[in-house]
Amino acid sequence: MTETYLSIQGVKKSFGPTTVVRDFSLDVGRGEFISFLGPSGCGKTTMLRMVAGFEEPSEGRIVVGGKDVTHLKPNQRKIGMVFQAYALFPNLTVAQNIAFGLRVAGMPKAESAQRVQDMLKLISLPQLGDRYPYQLSGGQQQRVALARALAPKPRLLLLDEPLSALDAKVRVSLREEIRSIQKELGITTIFVTHDQEEALSISDRIVVMNNGRADQAGTPFEIYNRPSTRFVANFVGTLNVLEARVLDAQAGSVDVAGQVLALDRDLAPKRKGDMISLALRPEAVSLGRAGARTGALAATIADVHFLGSVIRVRTKIGDSTVSLDTFNDPTMPPPVSGTPAELAFAPRDLMVLAD
Amino acid sequence: MKAGKFWAWLTFGLGAAYFIIPLLATMEFAMRMRRGTYSFDAFAVVFGDPRFQQTFGYSVVAAFFTILLGVLIVVPTAYWIRLRMPHIRPVIEFITLLPLVIPAIVIVFGYIRMYGSNSPLPFLGSARGTDALLVIGYAILALPYMYRAVDTGLRTIDVRTLTEAAQILGAGWGTIIMRLILPNVLIAVLSGAFLTFAIVIGEFTVASLLNRPAFGPYLQNIGANRAYEPAALAVITFVVTWGCMSVIQMLARFAPKSANRPD
Amino acid sequence: MATISLSEPDAARAVPPTARAVRLPTQWLGVAPFFLFAILFLIAPTAYLILGAFQTPNGAFTLNNLAELWQPTIRAAYWISIKVSFASAVIGALIGLAIAIAIVRGGLPRWVRSATMTFSGVASNFAGVPLAFAFLATLGRLGLVTIILRDIFGFNLYSTGFNILSFSGLTLTYLYFQIPLMVVIITPAIDGLKKEWGEAAATLGATQWQYWRMVVIPVLWPSFLGTVILLFANAFGAIATAYALTGSSLNIVPILLYAQIRGDVLHNPHLGYAIAFGMIFITGMANVFYIWFRTRSERWLK
């Protein structure tokens, strides 16, 4: 990571008796793209609004570029913000919307017009400068909102669920566009979303928030593959959870629905007889012979969903359900529900979830 | 933020003072009738006046027929426009707004000249006919409010689908309007009705120029000849208006909320 | 209901082809009562007066009636009417706007808003004769406020030249229904101002004032102007309050027309038509101006 540009230090926010953000600390490097990911009500938007200056932290500091901005008003922070509902000014054309921040800052007309043209080109809508917001599609409006936020060259770009109001298809293309523009400009960005796929696909780092707290911060790879809490494991990606009873903590041997399974790790401080939760990603499981992989469990195929390139199979082990994905193979008929099967996986892919 | 709140309270406070002081003053004035002490004498005199009872009764009946006429004209029209002729909606809306632009006194002046006893439609030739013309005039004055209320009510239900569903089940037009549309917009119609009542009950211009023994001209007459009774009458009228508006507010709570096709 | 749906399936099946064949006339039949009603009792009477304004008693075309409107009494009546209507509309609209902003954006408790809206609904319909009584009881020579000012503050309102039966008195009275009407109409427009617009403006560096000047005022302007026009027409045609307040001593157009209708005080029935025409013309022009303004400068409105 490069030098720290935005530093959030021990921030807490309470509205009356309810605390919505507690003990939040994060250092963001210059040019980094950070996502706040979490379910609604987890405090991610409140945290973003504190960075923007719409809310004042009850405790803690927010530092941008070495300067404490905790108590600065929003209009003195030089930030760009994009909202879920576009929030374009309806009485201004696209060009006037983009020029708003420049006009407010007193930039000369010619210079500002040039900058507006550059921004329109950046968002690939060079011909739409004279349109009014109501004449644009949702995706176009959000691109204009992005251009408007970027035009005054802000120090930070804050994106508050900018894709939630859009169609699935536009959502994907726009998030890629946002990411490429962000990389091109090298602007430090915070992106708030409740959609894990979005966060995984475009972030440098993700902060998973739960109940006002940052549960885990890390690269998408880390978050997905090494979730540190049960909440993160559940919230990010699909997860199969198996309840197991410890047989021998030191040897890593457990009982899953009557079958003995050997884990390649020490389970201390759990002791014999304790219950633990094991998690497996669907893509880490395969059907059939264990082969080089050592983990194997007998299961029954419950149902089969043909999704095209992938076949999603749900199997039952005792009371637990394990989903797994196999690639479609035209020469092989898909599994049949009700038949027995063997699940194979590498023991190191089994995650032991902290509670 | 703090300063904004202060200004908001100040604005609200000044506004409240402007609106409440005249009400208090009127009440106080009405209670001054008996020398040296406050009393409800003025109210007693008013309620005991047979002309008060007659004119108020007349206006209530006129309001009732106005509402009836308004509903009969507006509900089928608004329904039909939504169902079959959405393209002429702007025309209908324009017409329903005209009474806000053309003063009542002008409209009634037109009636007096057009519907005299020698005209093809001699409304003014008989007392009953003049009563009818009064009700018609009131229905015109209330048209903007009635249409607005009913149209808003219709917007919250999906008129077309409901109608088609009823037609598939074999319902005729009478059944559709009476048993399907009217019950669903009843709340809206009632809101329009009470608003109409509030407008009509003390109306002066039309009633006075048509020489009808309505409450409005009676109020004016008392005002010109008495000291304390007018204040009492003002309080009574205000209470009646307040009652109508409270009923409308209460009705709004029962209005159907399903906006499955908001447009 | 059940019997109908059981006994009529054949009839229902038979209907569509017939209905399609005569579709156009039946369709218009549905709105015929409305149009008949509107033409007979709204449009024709108005048109009758407008035509009459351009006719001599013998039915010949003339502009004399309109020219006669220029005589001093009538001209003065129009002038006072316009002044009162304009003043009460503009002042009422500004105060109403301030109150609406205060209750929507001022951070006041919820009950303030609902109480204000309910009261505004009542007060905007509390016009006419009783309103005049209320103001006489308040600011008349024996009104409560007049007496309190005199006895407690030693301030004689009437020695300042104030008179409830004057231009300022009438304007003050009209505000009692103009302000609430503005509040009722403009509050939804203020609700339509999105909170995010203000936040977006703030992040772009705008001060509160810049945000108001560049966004809020332009966005509210059409609704504001439209309501001002409505308030103007509302006051311009009002007669009951003024008549009950001042008798026929205050020379405003509706009272003049009222007197003319009752007793042909101008000794020319067609001059009455001309006065009526003048009233429609003024309120009509106000609306034409509004429509022109909207279509011309508000391209951003859908």
Automatic annotation (TrEMBL), chain A:
Q: Which InterPro entries match?
A: AAA+_ATPase (IPR003593), ABC_SmlMolc_Importer (IPR050093), ABC_transporter-like_ATP-bd (IPR003439), ABC_transporter-like_CS (IPR017871), Mo/tungstate-bd_C_term_dom (IPR008995), P-loop_NTPase (IPR027417), Transp-assoc_OB_typ2 (IPR013611)
Q: Which Gene3D superfamilies match?
A: 2.40.50.100, P-loop containing nucleotide triphosphate hydrolases
Q: Which residues form a coiled coil?
A: none
According to the record, the segments passing through the membrane are none
Record domain ABC transporter: where: 6-236
Q: Which UniProt keywords apply?
A: ATP-binding, Nucleotide-binding, Transport
Which Gene Ontology MF annotations are present?
ATP binding
SMART domains to which the protein is assigned, alphabetical: AAA
A Pfam family matched by this chain, by name? ABC_tran
The record's family statement is: Belongs to the ABC transporter superfamily.
The protein's name:
ABC transporter ATP-binding protein
Q: According to the entry, what is the taxonomic lineage of the organism?
A: Bacteria, Pseudomonadati, Pseudomonadota, Alphaproteobacteria, Hyphomicrobiales
From TrEMBL, chain B:
Q: Which UniProt keywords apply?
A: Cell inner membrane, Cell membrane, Membrane, Transmembrane, Transmembrane helix, Transport
Give the stretches traversing the membrane: 7-25, 56-79, 91-112, 132-150, 185-210, 230-252
Taking every annotated instance into account, which residue ranges of this chain make up the domain ABC transmembrane type-1? 52-249
The topology of this chain with respect to the membrane is:
Multi-pass membrane protein
Which range is the signal sequence, renumbered to this chain? none
- Coiled-coil regions, chain positions: none
The lineage's top-level taxon is: Bacteria
Record's keyword annotation contains Nucleotidyltransferase: no
* Protein's cellular compartments: Cell inner membrane; Cell membrane
Q: Which family does it belong to?
A: Belongs to the binding-protein-dependent transport system permease family.
| Official protein name in the record | ABC transporter permease
Automatic annotation (TrEMBL), chain C:
Q: Which domain of life is it from?
A: Bacteria
Q: Which SUPFAM superfamilies match?
A: MetI-like
Domain ABC transmembrane type-1 per the UniProt entry, residue ranges = 78-292
Cross-referenced Pfam families, in alphabetical order?
Answer: BPD_transp_1 (PF00528)
Q: Which Gene3D superfamilies match?
A: MetI-like
Q: How does it sit in the membrane?
A: Multi-pass membrane protein
- Localization in the cell: Cell membrane
**Any idea which UniProt keywords this protein has?**
Cell membrane, Membrane, Transmembrane, Transmembrane helix, Transport
Query: CDD domains, per this entry?
Result: TM_PBP2 (cd06261)
Q: Which segments cross the bilayer?
A: 28-51, 84-108, 128-149, 161-190, 210-233, 240-259, 271-293
Task: Describe the family membership recorded for this protein in Swiss-Prot or TrEMBL.
Answer: Belongs to the binding-protein-dependent transport system permease family. CysTW subfamily.
Q: What is this protein called?
A: ABC transporter permease subunit
Organism, scientific name: Tianweitania aestuarii
